[in-house]
Amino acid sequence: MNGELTAAVTARFYAVNGRHEMTPEDDAYVSAWYVALEELAATNGLDANEIRRLMLSNRLPLPSYIRSDGTQMVACDLLALLHEAGGAHRLPAWFASRWDSAEQAVIEWDDYLSGRYVCLRSVTPENMKRKNELVEGISNALAGPAPASEEWLERLHALVDELEELEPPFAPYDRLRFGGPVSRDTLIDDVRRRYPNS
User: Fold this and answer.
1) Does one domain contain both 44 and 59?
2) Among candidate residues 80, 78, 79, 64, the one with its CA nearest the CA of residue 31
3) Which residue from 55, 124, 126, 157 has the highest number of Cβ atoms inside 10 Å of its Cβ?
4) DSSP-derived secondary structure letter, 183
């Protein structure tokens, strides 16, 4: 049964993300920013397969990454929302209550469960909302660039700086599974390069 649950989670992970090679650089990044599922379970006094069952029953996100050695890697605070909500059975309703509309709640819940929310250092509804707001603010500023304006530059860089505080560096692997540049590339690094605030 242990192997079956591990295989089922791995199969769902690849169904969601596609199959892309994890390089030594990817493995090093993931090992620095994430934790092995078994290690997280042991730290919290849980059976690793109970976490996998919650993933497969859409009560916890899938692993964020699978290292080249097959280790399923998850966020260090993977269980935080579950505890805050008061248990796995309460988590969906608790999560939904954090959004302004049922439609938005469903969209964000699906994104959360996918495990692909690797664009945040800590995946919480508050951080998800704030990231959406920052992406919109930066995009709106870039739609009407005014680099000669000190006020425009300061406002733009304040948004970019806040987004950087929310986002990790990303792994090269992420550019493969997301099919191109990630938000750090387009909304942080590229913006700073194109519109320096010196």
Assistant:
1) yes
2) 64
3) 55
4) H
> pTM of whole model > 0.85?
yes
Closest CA to 59 of 82, 77, 43: 82
112/19 same-domain check: yes
Query: Which DSSP symbol is given to 175?
Result: H
DSSP state of 63: P
Task: Give pLDDT tens digits for 36-79.
Answer: 999 999 999 999 999 999 999 999 999 999 999 999 999 999 99
pLDDT at 181: 96
Sheet with strand 65-66: strands edge to edge: 35-36, 72-74, 65-66
Distances from the Cα of 189 to the Cα of 34, 79, 95, 181, 192, angstroms: 23, 31, 31, 11, 5
Q: How many structural domains is the chain composed of?
A: 2
CA trace torsion 178, 117, 79, 122 (10° rounding): 130
